[in-house]
Design goal:
By secondary structure, the chain is mostly helical. It is built from 6 helices and no strands. 66% of the residues lie in helices and 0% in strands. The two termini are 22 Å apart. Keywords: Membrane, Transmembrane, Transmembrane helix.
Length: 163
Amino acid sequence: MALTNRYKSAPGAGTLAALILVLVFGSPWYVDWARDNTDPDSAGGWFLRLLAWPAWRFDSSDSIQEIFADDLKAILVVALTFLFLYLLPGSQLARARGTLSQFFAGWAAYVFAGAFAALLTTLIRTDPSLLGAFQAAGDGAEYGLFTGWIIGIAALGGYRGRR
């Protein structure tokens, strides 16, 4: 039996899209490829490098604290995406599924998730500072702004939990 949109929840679909983005584009393999094969001075290269922002890794010459912070950031991006998709009222108040409010609620959820994940994980890094936390939150919001449209599209047409 094929699943139709009436079985798809907006928070679930958006979170699944966020998980795929983080798993694929945050992987060590993709991060290495983007660093070695893209031009940071071109729009395409910049975007391909931006996709790798919530990078996660298993090993590195960095401290355990830094590796843990990066891995936690990637996890928090996904978890906070679900939380914000669930809490943002735009798609809850929409009278019809598939409206632009669902799209923008999904997009905004990813901007907020990126910013808050970066802000929170900055606090556990080596030598955290308030300026560093603000800059990291800006980087997370930038990531969400330019990639959140994918989450917005995934959230389109989903229902909002119980009906």
